[in-house]
Amino acid sequence: MTVVGPPFLTSPGATQSTPRMKTMAPIKSRPGQKPDVLQETPSYVAKVKDFVVSTDRPVSFAINLRQHVDKLATLRVSAASNFRELDAQDTIRVLKSTLKTTRFCLDQGHLDLAEVIAEKAAYYIQSLQSLSARGLEIEEGLQCDLSGEYLQLRVALAWQQNRLDLAEAWLTKLSYDSHKPSSCQLESLADLLYEIGKDQAAKSSHVEAVRWLERAQDVLATRAPEDLSTDGRELRIAILHLLVRGLMRLPGHDARKKVSNIIADLDTSDGDRLAVLVLKLDLFMTDLNVPTEDICDILLRIVRIVHVTESTFKTILHYVHSLRARSSHLTHVVLEAFLLERLLSTERAEWVEKVLVTAVWNLTTTADVGDHVATLQQLLDALRDQGRVSIGPSATHAAQMVQSHHIRQQLLWLIEFETLILQ
User: For residue 219, which of 196, 180, 199, 193 has the smallest C-alpha distance?
Assistant: First the structure.
């Protein structure tokens, strides 16, 4: 039996064929009654799934068995069409099961199995459209949502098969002109496009990454940020964050202009988010025309509002070292604020010691801080007055090593200078 689906269901450049069902063993039923496979299947599948849960075999075995059980359930329900024509309710139920199984196979990386089951889903979508065309009452929004979910799975399958050209072709068939999709469905599509863009960015294919991330951005842009779910708002930040990083790797004034517009938009809606502030730092650090004071202000803002964790601690120190290439004085301002305003209250001695050693290193290896001895003395006095964290011997030794190394370098320079004069 060959079924040719409508254009949006078939692969680009090809017609879709559904192979004839294999002959199955007859299902027992009472005389004069047609066997109802739809009613028999759920209890049968439940028993097998219980075995999957209770089995002592490896997890990989249970996962593979679950996939084949789901596939078997779909095919057994399909066999019911040999005895009676599926009505709209049965078709919708079978289609949902088929889509769920396809997604499960994709998540586990069984692409061949996912493709086979996706072809069955195309057949049921066509059947649903045929029932609707004959005047049966089918909720239009539900029918469009199922078709949209099918096309999303097709895009995901083509992407995992490294066929971005085919993924784009499936994506062009996905349209929500006939009805307004739910925020959940839009966020699901945006998340898929984001994952494709992130995958391309990891492969250093920045042009392709920007294209897919811009598509994800456009999908979420059809909803106001306040209309998105909490996960949707987080996804929006993640998309724009990765998009900015991709655009910053592209040459040209247009890419730079897009970055500025995105950051300005993020600064308006989520200006206090760490991800947004870090994006601004990355942009300003690469632009020599940006005043160093602006970079210092952003770092101070991060220091004062962010929750200090191991990750944020390392992030702040990373940008402190980048700031030092521009101004040692402003670097000391940030380190002092970080140490006195935030770290002492955490009572994490290792953080305090590391920042203190960094401050000593910054003051004793530069000439633009003025009297670094007096500046360092003020910092140590402030630490002593608050007295919440005692400085360990390792940090004291490290600070002494930094100072002695600097003094030694100065002495070597003086000796070399005097030698040149005597010559």
Answer: 193
Contact 186, 222 (CB under 8 A): yes
pTM of the model: 0.70
Task: Please give the Cα distance from 201 to 196 (Å, whole number).
Answer: 9
Rounded CA gap, 241 and 246, in Å?
A: 9
Residues 263-318: pLDDT tens digits? 988 888 888 888 889 989 988 888 888 899 999 999 999 999 999 999 999 999 99
- Give yes or no for a contact between 104 and 67, defined as CB atoms under 8 angstroms apart: yes
187, 192, 197, 202: CA torsion to nearest 10: 120
297 phi/psi in degrees, rounded to 5: -60, -40
Exposure string over 198-226, b if 16+ CB within 10 A, otherwise e? bbbbeeebbebbbbbbbbbbebbeebeee
**Whole-number Å distance between alpha carbons of 220 and 389:** 47
- Whole-angstrom Cα distance, residue 288 to residue 284? 8
Residue 166 clears pLDDT 90, i.e. is over it? yes
CB 391 within 8 A of CB 353: yes
How far is it, in rounded angstroms, from Cα 98 to Cα 70?
Answer: 8
Give pLDDT, residue 64: 60
**Residue 376 pLDDT exceeds 50:** yes
With the C-alpha atoms ordered 180, 181, 186, 192, is the resulting torsion angle positive or negative?
negative
- According to DSSP, residue 391 is labeled P
Decide: residue 291, CB within 10 A, 0-12 exposed, 13-18 middle, 19+ buried: exposed
- CB–CB of 152/189 below 8 Å? yes
Q: What gap in Å lies between CA 91 and CA 121, rounded to an integer?
A: 10
Kindly tell me if the per-residue pLDDT of 380 is higher than 80.
no
